[in-house]
């Protein structure tokens, strides 16, 4: 009986260890991510990891140079855990970090995607809503700590705040893109819509240091957009270079 009991304990112990291992793997691995904007649109990385304003909890973030009014879409299925879209306050200073509008899509595995700098009242979603990959989440605007229009995107460990510790993530078609790299979205599960929804926010004055880059980043480079006569395509190298200079961001120090 003793041996049987001992082997049973060993078996249970091993089973427990395997379970813990499996759980920890599941909790730390984000699902394969699709590009977080609409099918066939192309935008560059304007800031990558461990640099500029991407330090501390935001070290694994990317900034993408999306113009104001550009729809952002779900990179994977999930549930809206938090949403803020009442802010019209922004500025090129860290003191504006807490004025960002945001949406968080919880993947249900301990990780979630945080999107920063939404346009005020641009989302039709509510907390608790389920989203499928490709569903529209809102639009890019100027809110929070931002010197020029962009999307701050990070996968983070779910916590009790909107600003949680970012974790490494990759995109299914692009891996872990670096600064200047252009990503063409293959998030094509939803019908293609007009890439730019003109809004009064487009005409907001920016300070001199960011005006040029803000204008440059409003010119999509994909072939799909080139066919749209309402936009003005530019060389991709110019666009990427301008985007790198037009960065901004978030560096809050939540208590
Ligand atoms: Zn950022």
TrEMBL record:
Keywords in alphabetical order: Signal
InterPro entries noted in UniProt: Cell_wall_metabolism_enzyme (IPR050570), Dup_hybrid_motif (IPR011055), M23ase_b-sheet_dom (IPR016047)
M23ase beta-sheet core domain boundaries: 60-158
Top-rank taxon, per record: Bacteria
Keyword field contains Signal: yes
Polar residues biased stretches: 210-237
Single annotated GO MF: metalloendopeptidase activity
Alphabetical list of PANTHER family matching this protein: MUREIN HYDROLASE ACTIVATOR ENVC, PEPTIDASE-RELATED
Protein name, entry field: M23ase beta-sheet core domain-containing protein
